[in-house]
Amino acid sequence: MAGDVISAVASTFEVRFQHYRRVLSGRSVKKVENAILMLADDYNVWSFDGQDTTKLTHLEKLEDFINPYRQFLDKAVATYFNNYYMLSFVENGHTTNNLELYWDAIENKCDFVRDRNASCYLEIDRTIENNFQQIGSSNFGYTLYTEQGYNFDGVAINTRLWTKDITPSKGKNVRFYAFTPELQPGMDISPDHFTMIYTLDGRITDLDNKAKWEQSNLGEVKTIGMVSIQNQNQVIGRMRPKINYSKGTSIAFYINYIALNKRIELLGIGAQFIERPLKKSRKVGA
Questions:
Q1: Are residues 33 and 112 in the same domain?
Q2: Domain containing 189: what range?
Q3: Domain C-terminal end among 105, 125, 148
């Protein structure tokens, strides 16, 4: 009989688990198309659509990056621009805003941007102003323009990226025998526009013996009849370092890219290596 009662009422009610979160920083609250986004009391970004709450940074673990002290949490500030929720905050070990979280509302994924030092975002009225963003920078003391396309007043924008040191086998030396940068297809890249330099154990490699790397970034294109089909999502080119400049305990990469009205997307850099005995000298180059 009890089973019949449960079956009868099961379709008439709904059990829903509801997260209750407090806002951690008032300036982090932003209203988007169908929800409110905020930095919550667990040091992560949540959305609230009027009924349900959803954690947006469950993969990034924002609590591992953000400075948890109240005087620094109060400096967190956010904006919503071009379908991105941007949250600028103070990173652990710092005292001013130096790290930004970008949440993509279309693809539902997050990225980090470092050292724009956005202390505030300036709101614009898109009905009467140009569609660009301005930020207040804490280290310059100026109002700065941000995204304006692929050039700045007709001049190519120089993009630089320095990765952190990566230790493949802790406590052991390795010999790197190949690097594989992965780029999003879209255009040809000239060797004069894209430069990649690596450091071993924090020391720069021999700049007189640069690794040459040339390839088309358009991907593999096959022609069927009169239709050309691009059948690769990304292009992988491989570079092999010289033996004298391939052995160490850690590696980091420096990338410099400059081209007028062009942009590439670096998806990652793979490094192939084998473990080797400890080296006799720590000198790896000039």
A1: yes
A2: 158-276
A3: 148
pLDDT in tens, 257-286: 887 877 777 777 888 888 876 655 555 544
**Domain membership flag for residue 7:** no
Structure tokens given for 66: 């953000």
User: Are residues 85 and 170 part of one domain?
Assistant: no
On whether both 56 and 108 belong to a single domain, the answer is yes
Q: Which strands, in side-by-side order, build the sheet including 36-39?
A: 30-31, 36-39, 45-48, 53-55
Q: Could you tell me how many residues make up the chain?
A: 286
Please name the residue that has the structure tokens 């652990």: 92
> What pLDDT score was predicted for residue 39?
93
Q: Is 106 inside a domain boundary?
A: yes
Q: Give the model confidence (pLDDT) of 136-155 as tens digits.
A: 887 777 777 776 667 777 77
Distance CA 88, CA 133 (A): 14
Domain count across the chain: 2
* DSSP codes of every residue in 213-248: ---BTT--EEEETTEEEE--S-EE--B---GGGSEE
pLDDT band of 244, cuts 50, 70, 90: confident
Burial pattern 219-241, b for ≥16 Cβ within 10 A else e, equals: eeeeeeeeeeeeeeeebeeeeeb
Neighbours of 187 (CB within 10 A): 15
Task: Judge if 123 and 169 occupy the same domain.
Answer: no
